Amino acid sequence: MLELLRRYKLLNGNKLGILLALYHVEGYVTFSDLQSALDMPKSSLHKFLEEMKEMGLLEYRRAITDLGVRAVVRITKRGQEVVKEYAELIKKVKF
Question: From residue 19, how far is each of 26, 65, 68, 86, 94 by CA, in Å?
Answer without folding.
Answer: 13, 22, 25, 11, 24
